Amino acid sequence: ETIFDGIFLIETLMRFGICTSACGFVKSVHNIIDLVALLPCVVRLSLGYVVLHDEEKRLRFLLCGLLPVLRLLKLLRQLQLFHVFTRVISTTLEALKFLLFMLLIVVIFMSSLVYLVEPVSNIDTVPTAMWFTVVTMTTVGYGDISPESFPGKAIACFMIIGSVLYIALPVGLLGNALTQVWSERDKILVASITATRLNEWGYSAADIPMLFRHFDTQHRGELTLPEFRAMLMELRTGLADDRVVDLFESLDKDGGGSIDHKEFLRTLFPSTYHELYGMKPAKKPKSRSR
């Protein structure tokens, strides 16, 4: 375990040493995960590699069973679809918070009803009633608690039927968001990886015009497909050639065979585009002559 911790520590220190921006290194989510994965090493160093007999069993489980699992988080660096998953969550987060809030209200209300109608010998506290309500509404049904009175059974039936309909709302919401995000996964991946690379190099999305000028070998103010492919290779996006072509065609709105930094920013970094160039003025409706 100590050898693995040492390897990960050396790797993290080397990446920090070659990073051009210390602030960008600390702000990176993947680097934060790597630092969390080094917790076992910190714990061992703090204990001096000596464990007292009374605490041996608990700390052995902590050091050898629980904390090493954190190393698996390092795999997120290699899983590009993790960016797609985070986009799905961020897209639906506002609606999910509302649904969870409504679910909390329903649980409290139904728990109060169950506590009132059930005999004390069966459900003696409100927390017990809440446990029964949550287990019933999530259709888990452990069976450790079941209603004995007729009103309690009627309320349980209502909760089961209502929860089946209610649970379908967040499931459908997440499914629809996943479908939409999956259709634009290449744009999301390129935007996320580009932002990460620029952050590692000490730049931001506002420096994308400079990035385009660097790969614009023909000095036309635009990138052709080969130049765009070279830029994505330098950014290490990991996209296959056919997906690069599809992404290029989706960015090339006018079909001219080249894209400029404004098209790239407007599609992948809309907030940065509006900060740099402002909102596109709306076209005034043509007045009809009478």
TrEMBL record:
Report the residue ranges that make up the EF-hand domain in this protein.
Answer: 203-238, 239-274
Do you know which SMART domains this protein is assigned to? Answer: EFh (SM00054)
> According to its UniProt record, where is this protein located?
Membrane
Report keywords, A-Z. Answer: Calcium, Ion channel, Ion transport, Membrane, Potassium, Potassium channel, Potassium transport, Transmembrane, Transmembrane helix, Transport, Voltage-gated channel
Q: Which GO terms describe its biological process?
A: action potential
Write out the GO MF terms: calcium ion binding; voltage-gated potassium channel activity
Q: Which Pfam families match?
A: EF-hand_7 (PF13499), Ion_trans (PF00520)
Q: Name the Gene3D superfamilies on file.
A: 1.10.287.70, EF-hand, Voltage-gated potassium channels. Chain C
Instruction: Write out the transmembrane intervals.
Output: 98-117, 157-178
Q: Which InterPro entries match?
A: EF-hand-dom_pair, EF_Hand_1_Ca_BS, EF_hand_dom, Ion_trans_dom, VG_K_chnl, Volt_channel_dom_sf
Q: How does it sit in the membrane?
A: Multi-pass membrane protein
Entry's Gene Ontology cellular component terms? voltage-gated potassium channel complex
Broad class of the protein's primary localization: membrane
PANTHER family for the chain = POTASSIUM VOLTAGE-GATED CHANNEL PROTEIN SHAB, VOLTAGE-GATED POTASSIUM CHANNEL
Specify the protein name.
Answer: EF-hand domain-containing protein
Q: Which organism is it from?
A: Alexandrium andersonii
**Species classification:** Eukaryota, Sar, Alveolata, Dinophyceae, Gonyaulacales
